[in-house]
Structure formats: C-alpha cells, structure tokens
Amino acid sequence: MVEQHERETAVAAYPSLHAALAHATKQYLLEVMQLAQGSPRRAARIAGISRGHFHKLLAKHAGSRRKPAAGNAEWQALGAKHGP
C-alpha cells in the first residue's frame, strides 16, 4: 500500500512530456545562443534551422521580443531575440 502511494506521488511530481520537451528546448536555445555569442543568426546556423524558425522558437520558449543592452544578463539568461 505504501509502495503504491510512493509511486503515485512520484508520477504526479514527474513533468509531462510537453513540459519536459519545452524545458529541453529552452535549455538548447540558451546554450546555442551562448555558443553564437548572442547572435540569433549564428545560433540558427549552428542549430541547422532557418533564422525565422529560430526566432519563433525563441519567442515561444524565451518569451522576449526585444534585445537588451549588449552584455546584459537578461540577454544571457533569456536568450532574447534581436528585433526585426
């Protein structure tokens, strides 16, 4: 009985596939942005996707549509995309 309760608790605490994929995607975007030194154009090239698709992913997963000042920690943390 206790074992079943522990399993149910662990399952309830485990993220859904959607949540896990969103987290992994955001982490990937942040890492590739670091490699590209904050340039979405270079990051898209590294990721092997179009710049437009990369910008859509950033908007969806990082949530920012503006570029903070160069070297700003927000840019590093969020992977905010350049303006159009």
Can you characterise this structure?
This protein is mainly alpha-helical and 84 residues long. The protein has five helices and no strands. It has a single domain (15-78), classed as Arc Repressor Mutant, subunit A (Orthogonal Bundle), CATH 1.10.10. Mean pLDDT is 78; it is low at 68-72 and 80-84.
Residues in β-strands, percent: under 5%
Q: Biggest β-sheet, characterized?
A: none
Order of helices and strands: HHHHH
The radius of gyration computed from the alpha-carbon positions, rounded to a whole number of angstroms, is: 17 Å
The DSSP helix count reads 5
Distance between the termini: 58 Å
Q: Could you give the count of β-strands?
A: 0
CATH topology (level 3) name: Arc Repressor Mutant, subunit A
Low-confidence stretches: 68-72, 80-84
Structural class: mainly alpha
Q: Write the CATH architecture name.
A: Orthogonal Bundle
Coarse morphology: elongated
